[in-house]
Amino acid sequence: NCNLVFNPQTGASIGMDSRLTNYYPWVNVFDLQKKYESVGFKDFRHAVTGAALTKIQHPEVETFWGSKHERAGVECKDCHMPRVKPKKGKEYTFHGQRSSRYMLKDTCLRCHPDWTPEQAEYQVDGVQNYVRGKMRKAEFWLGELIHAFLRAKDLGVGEEALREARKEHDKAHILWEWWTAENSDGFHNPEAARQSLAESVDASQRGIEILNKAIGQKTAAK
Prior knowledge:
Blueprint: H1 32-39, E1 44-45, E2 52-53, H2 60-64, H3 68-71, H4 76-80, E3 83-84, E4 92-93, H5 108-111, H6 117-154, H7 159-181, H8 190-220
Antiparallel strand pairs: 1-2, 3-4
């Protein structure tokens, strides 16, 4: 259900006969906005701001590209399908495809033999908790931007300012939404998570500044 694609102009579901249903942009978080602009399609229109926005669909692979682990030669299977050896029997490849935090001895500790399982878990938790905090900060500023739109529209701010602020909403949304759809809470690429979430906050604040300036001009003219 989370992978359904809709036409934001009509609200109708786009069927399997359209290539948009199975469109894979294959770019990183910083290039995604331009990629969708080149396609000329957005998933939905925000009810308050009117911005046409993108619904991102689980970009784990694209997130992992260029990360420290990926550059070091680590592959998906090393963390999620490791070689395991039971107490009895031969070593085999685990096919459960679950988080490495539940298999630390067979995943993290193979490349970090100087760590204890507790230290490995601390590293994972440290990254993920930090990124979750940055996600919450980005969400706060997105909320502030949406509230600024409400004030601006109530005061009759002109379309030009609203249009410019919508562009910032689009940027802020896509740089935040990526990490809500990606299932590692930033662990697949902590550096990209930190940078893009900071840029999301910047975009929201620029949008707020645009609207507040227009609000000030509108109230001063009364």
